[in-house]
Design a protein that fits this description.
single chain, about 160 residues, mainly alpha, 2 domains, two-stranded antiparallel sheet, 5 helices, about 5% strand, extended
Length: about 160
């Protein structure tokens, strides 16, 4: 490891060490539950912090029922967990509403598209628009017809298979 010569170098090394330790701890965890995350506090002198959080990038680790969530979050041990649960629900709801409202491509997505196609469409449109410096609207007008045609063909083929 190179010697830290600046505040930024020290901070980078502290983050790297915390990420390494988090990876070691997370490797020991199996099944559903939270994982250790690494970040920094806000402000002029940020400090490296770690915390437990559900890893949305690893769906197999996420609870699938309310009872599972209550248990994994430790709410089942509380005498009156409802206020804490409602707080979590409000935070999640607000975060989701912001994500939906701030998604500039959401209006172009068809409601029957699967999540994988939605992600692919948004990434393709964003990348193409950035590479060509076209507006998002012009890029959607160029790309969406092909996506719709291919999706409709897949749906028609799936329906034919189901008929047999």
């Amino acid at each position: 490891m190179k010697e830290a010569t600046t505040v930024e170098d020290v901070q980078e090394q502290a983050i790297a060490a915390a990420q390494k330790r988090a990876a070691e701890l997370n490797a020991e965890k199996k099944g559903k539950g939270t994982r250790v995350r690494v970040g920094q506090t806000r402000g002029r002198n940020p400090k490296v912090i770690t915390w437990e959080a559900f890893d949305t990038d690893a769906p197999e680790t996420l609870p699938t029922t309310l009872d599972e969530f209550m248990s994994l979050a430790g709410l089942d041990k509380m005498a009156k967990p409802e206020p804490q649960l409602v707080s979590y629900l409000i935070d999640g709801f607000n975060s989701n509403q912001y994500a939906v409202a701030s998604d500039v491509l959401a209006e172009f997505v068809e409601p029957n598209w699967p999540d994988a196609l939605v992600r692919q469409f948004k990434q393709t449109v964003s990348n193409y628009a950035a590479a060509t410096q076209m507006s998002l609207e012009d890029t959607v007008a160029l790309i969406k017809p092909g996506i719709v045609k291919a999706f409709d063909a897949r749906m028609k083929a799936a329906a034919e298979v189901e008929k047999k």
